[in-house]
Amino acid sequence: MERSVRIYSPAKNAMQSGVNNTRQWKIDFDIMPEGARWENPLMGWASTLEMQFDTKEDAIYFAEKQGWTYYIQEPKARKFKPQVYADNFRYNSGKLRIIHTK
C-alpha cells in the first residue's frame, strides 16, 4: 500500500504572539480516500503521527527514503504592517471616525 504524506510548517498559535513553534517542519499522514484510515497491520489500530524535522529538506529526504509520495504545503508569507502609537492621534482628512466608548 502506498502512503501519501503532507510536509508542512505549522501555523502560529492564535492565542499567543510568539512564532517559536513555526520553525520546524512536520510530516502528517493524509486520510485515505473513501473515509478509510491507515491501520496498523499488527494490532489493527488506526494510527496517526506527526514527525518533526529541522528543515524542509530533511523531511523530504525522510519521505523519499521511506518510499512515500509527498506534497509540500508552503507556509503563507506573514504580512507585517509597521505601526506607531502616534498613528492613533494623526490627523486624517475626510470623514471622522466615531468611536463609542459604551
UniProtKB/TrEMBL annotation:
Membrane topology of this protein: Peripheral membrane protein
Subcellular compartments: Mitochondrion inner membrane
Biological process annotations from GO: electron transport chain
Keyword Mitochondrion: yes
Keywords, alphabetical: Electron transport, Membrane, Mitochondrion, Mitochondrion inner membrane, Respiratory chain, Transit peptide, Transport
GO CC, one annotated term: mitochondrial inner membrane
Coiled-coil features, chain-numbered ranges: none
UniProt xrefs under InterPro entries: NADH_UbQ_FeS_4_mit-like, NDUFS4-like_sf
Entry-linked Pfam families: NDUS4
Function: Accessory subunit of the mitochondrial membrane respiratory chain NADH dehydrogenase (Complex I), that is believed not to be involved in catalysis. Complex I functions in the transfer of electrons from NADH to the respiratory chain. The immediate electron acceptor for the enzyme is believed to be ubiquinone.
PANTHER family: NADH DEHYDROGENASE [UBIQUINONE] IRON-SULFUR PROTEIN 4, MITOCHONDRIAL, NADH-UBIQUINONE OXIDOREDUCTASE
Family assignment from sequence similarity: Belongs to the complex I NDUFS4 subunit family.
The protein, known as: NADH dehydrogenase [ubiquinone] iron-sulfur protein 4, mitochondrial
